[in-house]
Task: inverse folding
């Protein structure tokens, strides 16, 4: 066993490179992360929580203003855009908030007609409504300048025998195929998977393998979306990420964290080392011309107990922490240890980067970006929270259909 | 290895004994199983779903009329008894429906004040409200003739550091201790546990060990409640049941089934052999004077995709199936194989009972009870479903606070 | 909701068809299932356990003689064929035992050189040895008349950073690609996957998605092998099976059962309903000309506590039970319920078949095949066990390298 | 939300206190961690791996010499002390190696007679042998100056019906009760639990609840042992630790880490934040006079791929890292945030300590103890590895019965 040498003499140049990459991060936060939400046992209302899309964009803008790396906002069509007026106001509201629209998320699970599924439903009317809604979403994306259609399906079944796996699979291939064909050539379709919930016996797209085969069938504009909370216990997510990268099938992430199921906690809050290991794969791929493909980094969280905006700021900071540590990995030394079969030396290259306290580095990065070194403290001192609590008060809705 | 002999010559007597035990089953169905419900992604409304407590009791009465073994109805105080009037009407409504009130279930999770917990909350006001609500529930139980207080807590935390495990434990011991002290001498307190949800980092009563130690501390009127969907993957539930029986700590069940988490599917729908193995322990304990203790058999399910009443009838039938098969186990032969260390022979005693088709036996039992041999077919032919759909229509509420 | 009608009037014809399919089953048992084995905490020796390949074939022959559906025997090259002499004796020994050689299983995990993997090892010498051993196995397959090369890899890593996921993936594609190219045109390569063990941080082929993408890359002679014990908790295996069928990627099974991890218990012993649901997919595919593809049904179990041969007989009987119940499913009625979106009715079609006691049917099938109706009883009465215990005694080896 | 103030002005005093506690740590390493080991798929032999107890003690001494906090060595009676001579040589060998004997571990799982269990076996002879072996271990402990009897049982069953849960439970209570009664008044019995393996259907002591109830029954000298790899997926171990502390039932740990099952990886290697959270509970308890009880900190790992001694040094360093970070937690600020119900502020108190790079602090601690600041580098430079490889060579045994 050998251990890597101390930092190379040209570490200074490398630090500049690392800082540059940290500054160029682009993270998308979700509109629904600023609205009231809860579990099936009830939702706890927060004073100041956003209800309208303008409020959600404003709050997202506040997060971007503090962190500098969250310029995009995901929109959930039915929740955010209940009518034409809402849609028409989006570009101006986004501009005013200093953000832009990111992915467009169809909602084909909430209406009563989706009781047995959307694309996979045995009911032809539900399937037709699904396709139509997704076509509408493409038009909406066009209207608001989004190039990403992000597909999460609640399709699944609750009981053995409820429906035919094969029939459902073929309905999905046909329906999503029609949507894919309708996309403009510069639009990306992200295909998410999830082990379970709300289907409790099976989920039609239950794992990355299902999404991968479906994307291969659809075409090169379809890529897999990895939500960190959608796997069975024990699954090695960083390995999946690496595989999708190598197969040119990785499209994006829904960042969050879980201990049990789809818990939607702040990313990195439960297992920060795992999150670092995922970013380690991403950072390695970025540096490899053969594997560098565009990836959408999106947050999918909504907080019941924490205040919405501080929790989102914390989320962005956790992402920066993981990325910064991944960028510190000495890749030549890592590769050398791996090639030599030196198990401990290879591990220690990762551990050494992970154990580094990157808070000072990130403070410098932020200051060089003209930001406060501690965005969370800056938020708490900004008065924004007090203002929205006073202006908006405590309301029960969350906007759109989910109201 | 030896195998058990064919059925003993006195198998006839034994069948009569088995039939008698099947007829004497007492199962409690939940009022909330007749009302609209859903997942956090939305609820699908059913035409005819009950909203008022009178409707819920009527539907439960229908299930009992068809099955003959479901005479009790669990009540969720806030959902079922929003005011004095509702409470006062319960005895008459129950009598008219041909059922009686079973367990009383406090609700100390839905109100905004319970955001950080009930008994375990760091907020003194929330803790005081919790104790007061439970004392009210004791009074309600008294008013409606119930002798069972069934405690499920949503208490838990979402993040490391959110609260002190120890402080929360001691608050729980103190608060629940006060409630325990207020119970009349003939009242039973059931203490449920659950691995996770809605707490996603920890649950204060996360497993049977927590409930068992707490019951030991409270006193002999406190017993553990086992919900079949509240365990980590892989946990051997029948072993827990056996341990609780031997420790005189088993108080009751919430029957349902799951594949992933707390899925609340029809009991026996995902793993019927596991359910048989649980009943195998219960049937064995019933026959052992040293271990026979009263157990509350309660259903805790609410169905989104299946019609409420047929799903509940199916549930009762699945319970009867598991119990009937467990009663068929040749216990002397099983014990002989086990004592001899004959692994395969012991297993085959259980398998032999399980593989038996008990539908004919259950049809006979029902006919001897004056019931239709197939309660599900009888329900479908009864016109009840059509009647409630016409009379009640499709409504959005589920009664009480949950409305 | 409607329920399926009672059995059609032409049920008689259908029963003949079912019996014919039950008689034509072909199951492969593993040579290593007849030899001493154990856990990492020790192995318990059984008197009479097979050591030589001739003994293993003889024992497999005994299982086939009793069940009539187990004519094939899987061979593990290093364990069964330590030298040329062993190999040369196989055809005659198999013929004498009344069985034929099934799949050939390379062993690229036991030798010290495979410490860091086989195809995926960073050590070029290990990779070269792996390819050479697999080429040897192709030659051995040719020599013994086998047309199936069954690949299970122990490749994986124990620690983050130990090796590069991508490098390992590419080494595997290259090495297995070379083996694939060397196969004769009528040989099938089965590619198994496993979540973990002996790799405890990652497994290179960790799930069906990895195997599926690899098979697609290799070519049409490569298919996925599903071992029932190799999934994360909660994974819906019947859904995977259905997907692989529809993608023309299903190659075969390793039957066994587990409660926790890769427990290698008798198939159907822990969750027989799940096993029925898997066979339900297989039976449905068999009846669909579009989806009917050849599948290798192989047992992968080795028993420590149960006697080897009775456990294997029980295994075959459990497979027959699952298959018989799956054949009883009323597929037109099931499809009708599913198309109507009748969740309960669809489920009840499966439950009705599953609840049927098929032991009488299987007894008839066996008698029509000239066999004893209860193969297990027949084995116990045969004197075979007493004979091998007397002749072979208690030995410590298990043959070949594993000795 | 408020955030804790910067470090108090008396941080200097606190650092001295932290350093003192780090210096006073006492960790026990296992004799079997220095010997060859493996998985059920084979063991990879290491040149220089210890075989005799003298070699194991020497290697443990080397680890202690480098780290200063590992003065105790756990012994596995059958593996380490195959005969009287081995036993008699232990005190001198330990003294020469600079270590002392820690816990004594009976082995009641490896002999053929334990096929169906030890204390729980249906075979009276096996039970009697178990009790006798444990009584012998008490005598051995006396002979070598150990005060800790550490009980891990492989007892469990593989199949439903194999044995009676209740009968096994009562046999265990009786047998272990007899051993307990024979212990001198200053001896501690640690009672370990494990979810599964080698039992694959049930384990008699499957979780902390089983061990806790058993310890309560045995008496105050019996305490629960927590092995970090012995839980179901998702279980919150730090919560269990906290509960056991509060119940005065915590006796000790077997440190290791896992991603899947009982993987026995280096502690902290897979989820270092979880390990920190466990130490956070321990550090908090140490500071609370009411909850401070003695705890045995033991490592239970054996490495196949990493070199034995460096892996053990890394293990000790990981423990120090977790402990140091836990000592850095600002407990008054944490308590204040928790009392205020400030979820995010409470969490950030832990995160802030965890994110601190404690390598410089630990280097100072080591230097003040007269040690090299980096024990791993010191080992690699020491020549010890080269010497044992040359002197001992590559051997197949691991000592004693396990040879």
Result:
């Amino acid at each position: 066993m050998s251990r890597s040498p101390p930092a190379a003499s040209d570490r200074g140049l490398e630090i500049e490179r690392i800082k540059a990459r940290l500054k160029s991060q682009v993270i998308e936060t979700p509109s629904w992360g600023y609205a009231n939400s809860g579990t099936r046992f009830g939702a706890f209302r927060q004073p100041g929580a956003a209800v309208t899309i303008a409020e959600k964009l404003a709050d997202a803008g506040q997060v971007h203003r503090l962190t500098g790396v969250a310029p995009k906002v995901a929109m959930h069509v039915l929740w955010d855009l209940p009518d034409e007026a809402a849609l028409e106001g989006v570009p101006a509201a986004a501009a005013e908030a200093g953000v832009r629209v990111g992915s467009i998320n169809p909602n084909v699970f909430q209406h009563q007609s989706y009781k047995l599924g959307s694309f996979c439903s045995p009911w032809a009317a539900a399937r037709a409504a699904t396709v139509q809604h997704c076509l509408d979403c493409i038009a909406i994306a066009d209207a608001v300048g989004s190039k990403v259609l992000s597909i999460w399906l609640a399709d699944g079944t609750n009981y053995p025998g409820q429906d035919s796996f094969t029939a459902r699979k073929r309905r999905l291939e046909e329906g999503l195929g029609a949507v894919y064909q309708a996309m403009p050539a510069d639009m990306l379709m992200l295909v998410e998977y999830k082990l379970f919930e709300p289907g409790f016996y099976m989920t039609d797209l239950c794992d990355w393998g299902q999404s991968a085969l479906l994307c291969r069938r659809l075409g090169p504009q379809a890529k897999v979306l990895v939500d960190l909370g959608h796997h069975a216990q024990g699954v090695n997510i960083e390995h999946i990420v690496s595989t999708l990268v190598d197969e040119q099938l990785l499209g994006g992430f829904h960042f969050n964290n879980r201990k049990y199921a789809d818990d939607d906690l702040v990313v990195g809050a439960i297992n920060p080392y795992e999150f670092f290991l995922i970013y380690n794969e991403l950072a390695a791929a970025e540096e490899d011309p053969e594997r560098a493909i565009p990836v959408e980094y999106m947050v999918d969280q909504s907080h019941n107990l924490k205040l919405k905006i501080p929790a989102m700021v914390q989320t962005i900071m956790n992402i920066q922490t993981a990325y910064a540590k991944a960028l510190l990995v000495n890749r030549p030394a890592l590769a050398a240890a791996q090639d030599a079969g030196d198990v401990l030396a290879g591990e220690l290259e990762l551990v050494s980067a992970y154990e580094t306290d990157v808070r000072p580095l990130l403070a410098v990065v932020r200051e060089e970006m003209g930001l406060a070194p501690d965005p969370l403290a800056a938020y708490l001192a900004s008065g924004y929270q007090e203002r929205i609590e006073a202006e908006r008060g405590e309301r029960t809705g969350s906007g759109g259909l989910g109201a």
Confidence is low (pLDDT under 50) at residues 1-7 of chain B. The CA atoms of residues 138 and 183 of chain B lie 7 Å apart. Chain B touches chain A at residues 38-42, 44-45, 109-110, 112, 115-116, 154, 158-160, 162, 195-198, 200-201, 233, 258-261, 263-266, 269-270, 304-306 (CB under 8 Å).
